[in-house]
Amino acid sequence: MKVNHTERKHAKLSASSSAKWLNCPGSINAEKGYKNESSIYANEGTLAHELADLCLKTGNNTDFYIGKTVDETDALIDAEMAIYVQEYVDYVLSHETSNSCLFTEEKVSFDNVVPDGFGTMDAAIIDDNTSVCHVFDLKYGRGVKVSAIENTQAQLYAIGMLNELGFLDAIKSFRLHIVQPRINNIEYWDITCTDLIKFGEFVKERATLALSDNAKRVPGHKQCQWCRAKSDCKVLYNFTKEIVSSDFENLEDIDINVLNDNDKKNILDNKSLVELFLKSIESNVFETLISGKKFKGYKIVKGRSIRKWTDEAEPFLFKKLKSKAFEKKLIGITKAKTVLSKEDIEKLTYKPEGKLTLANEKDKRKAVEASNNLFENIEGEI
């Protein structure tokens, strides 16, 4: 059943915001009074989901809709979106078999664990041959990498599928897929029906807490990341203040060598949360000033400006310099995908080694072994 995307907003404890209220039950009360404003990124994501749903329903490829509208807005599908959404469509369809059933943009209910809980699942495939239900979640954003491992949104959709079709005894386990094509992030995670039911019991407890008047706020990167109240959250402020002041009083006078490994680990473990909080404060004060209000000690100024050519520059330069007025540049790989075959792209491109970076030990990437050659390669970057 096709569901209007605005319907998703009415679920108080939604699947899409579950990482927030499951980890911080107090976030529901904290966000009261804050506007749930849309953004160009959210609108772009909605358009991508509409395109994916349309292609899965009609069997058309995404390039059929380039230059066309697919929803009630006037936004046009461009070649870049068509390429990335096609990756998602192809991935979903690759899991179809001669004995499977496809669901797309399906409204599912998980109100057995969350009061009035429902959500709109991007796609699912039940494979009768294996009794596995594949749940697919398209993430069109490229700012934050989303993991499939223990993904709460996908698990709630799985509970919804189990509620709807569990009586048929056709589902023995679930495979939850995250497809984030713009950053080449495609991964899945398996969960049995038994473990999913246990997760549902945990959700039921947390949902009860989240809807209570005295629900506690619990700081953490997952829950604070999309919380609209984080820039005004005293609990988050006290938490971050403790992190940056527990081991030293003055950051400018810090001697990093006097900190022990546990001190450094504590700071690194919470680095992203502290940075998130600081950025949210900066954004909040900026919005206060830009709206015309005052904020003691700060003001809005114009940033550095770079000189640009006027509209009259091109004909003038061409007259003066002829062909020297232009520089030739290869088109980008994404644009080239619209005119070249996949085989040509594979043959003409390569992936350089990624820069060395610090990661938590839980990161699934293989650790790089230290060596003299390795040090020589990074020495100039330190």
Q: Summed up, what is this model?
A:
By secondary structure, the protein is an alpha+beta fold. The protein has helices at residues 18-23, 27-30, 40-58, 79-93, 152-165, 193-210, 221-224, 234-245, 261-269, 271-290, 313-321, 333-336, 342-348, 372-378, and strands at 100-109, 118-127, 132-138, 173-180, 185-192.
Tag the structure with descriptive keywords.
single chain; 382 residues; alpha+beta; Lambda Exonuclease, Chain A; 5-stranded mixed sheet; disordered N terminus
Task: Describe this protein's structure.
Helix 5 packs across helix 6 (193-210). The chain folds into 2 domains: 5-210, Lambda Exonuclease, Chain A (Alpha-Beta Complex), CATH 3.90.320; 229-290, no CATH class. A hairpin with an 8-residue loop joins strand 1 (100-109) and strand 2 (118-127). It is globular. 39% of the residues lie in helices and 11% in strands. The chain has helices at 18-23, 27-30, 40-58, 79-93, 152-165, 193-210, 221-224, 234-245, 261-269, 271-290, 313-321, 333-336, 342-348, 372-378; strands spanning 100-109, 118-127, 132-138, 173-180, 185-192. It is built from 14 helices and 5 strands. It has 382 residues and is of the alpha+beta class. A 5-stranded mixed beta sheet has the order 1-2-3-4-5.
